[in-house]
Amino acid sequence: MEYKLIACDLDGTLLDRDSRLSEKNAEAIANIRRAGAEFVVCTGRTLYEIPEDVLNCRDIRYIVYSDGAAAVDRKRNEQIFTRYINAETAKAVFAELSRYDAMIEIYENCRPVTDIRKISRESYRYYRIDESYHPTMDRTRVGTGDLKEYLDAHHRVEIFNAFFRSPQEREECLDRLNSIKGINFTTSMDNNIEIMSFDASKGEALKELCSLIGIKTENAVCMGDSKNDLSMYAAAGTALAPANADETVKLAASAVICSNTEGVADYVYKNYIKK
Predict the structure, then answer these.
(1) Are residues 46 and 108 in the same domain?
(2) Residues spanned by the domain of 155
């Protein structure tokens, strides 16, 4: 099989424990491009959250962000597609999330916006957010005094992300979201829910991107460690799970490879791309 596109998740996959792109992975991405294949970032983060060392990597042309709600062509400096949540649907989702003790975030216009009173290390710990992600939260979260008022005034919602204090409340909310039409939802951590438009997912975004740039999905490899990567697994010809991936994800993979700390881009170059 000749592979023409590598779609890769960020957290727990391409990035190391410090949420950095290693030199080893950066060099491998350059080698992948020289070999004639595209290396595509496919992340649950919105654009504003993506680390500078990833954004500074000139060998990454396409970025799919917010769980497939949007994608950008960095060479042309333009959005390829967007899949925003309908305004009335977004209000229904917000009302449902507001029933619970949760840190609600609205990803809108490439920024993660949340209640300004919850942007603190104390709040992150309260909502069981992994310590390794705290610096990213500090750097990227945009605060607002009234999240409902913000939502009423902004209608380009990519996704909602909510961190839950209680596992039981999170499970109840997952069940109740099934009654809201026009959405798709997934998780990437054991304390969160990510909600997007019904036609948005990493998998749908991968299929659309492949179609736009003339690559068959069977010639695509994807890598990801969390449940929000499973739609991408179903879309790509080959799905590779890092050794640190969720066990459910490993079971769905074509193969289990090295961990995110060992250089997944380097692994895929040497084992799937290099002639």
Answers:
(1) no
(2) 87-197
Task: Tell me: do 178 and 230 sit in the same domain.
Answer: no
First-residue to last-residue Cα distance in the chain: 12
Burial class (CB in 10 A: 0-12, 13-18, 19+), 147: buried
Distance in angstroms (rounded) separating the CA atoms of residues 269 and 250? 20
pTM of this prediction?
Answer: 0.95
Residues 6+ apart with CB under 8 A from 80: 62, 71, 72, 73, 208, 209, 212
Domain boundary among 197, 231, 254: 197
Q: Cα–Cα–Cα angle for 197, 202, 207, nearest 5°?
A: 105
Report the alpha-carbon angle 52-129-8, nearest 5: 45
Residues 98 and 52 in one domain: no
DSSP conformational letter for 49: G
User: How far is it, in rounded angstroms, from Cα 228 to Cα 232?
Assistant: 8
Cβ neighbors of 85 (< 8 A, separation 6 or more) are 93, 157, 158, 159, 160, 182, 183, 195, 196, 197
CA atoms within 13 A on the CB side of 267: 20
Residue type at position 238: T
Asked if 240 and 221 count as a contact pair (C-beta separation under 8 A), the reply is yes
Tell me: the pLDDT tens digits for 48-74? 999 999 999 999 999 999 999 999 999
Q: What CATH number should be reported for the domain holding residue 39?
A: 3.40.50.1000
> Could you give the number of structural domains in the chain?
2
Same domain, residue pair 181 and 224: no
Q: Contact 97/173 with Cβ under 8 angstroms?
A: yes
Q: Quickly state the pLDDT bin for 95 (edges 50, 70, 90).
A: very high
Q: Is 76 in the same domain as 205?
A: yes
Pair 71, 19 in one domain: yes
